[in-house]
Design brief:
The structure is a single chain. β4 and β5 form a beta hairpin. The protein is globular, with a radius of gyration of 13 Å. It has no helices and 10 strands. The protein is mainly β.
Length: about 110
Amino acid sequence: QVQLVESGGGLVQAGGSLRLSCTASGSIFRLNVMAWYRQVPGNQRELVATVTKYSTTNYLSSVKGRFTISRDNAKNTVYLQMNSLKPEDTGVYYCNAVPNLSSWGQGTQVTVSS
């Protein structure tokens, strides 16, 4: 079972940028779709962005034009470049495959101050 480790979160002011990374313990090439999710306490985890193994992407409407998802199959890593951050982007960000792997990583906290 592939294990996922997210990193790159932090505290940033509104308008700032962060780059999240998700490194897998095994090959992600066989996983057709990789995704980033975020969760705010009290809310369900929501799908933020997806990328196929052929680099086709899709985004939650509220992040379109500000976030960019990408993957490097050779490095078994998925990235999320987040620009023009807003306070409503605050949350714990997780990566996983679609359909989801049974094991989730610990996530990485993103906090955007106004």
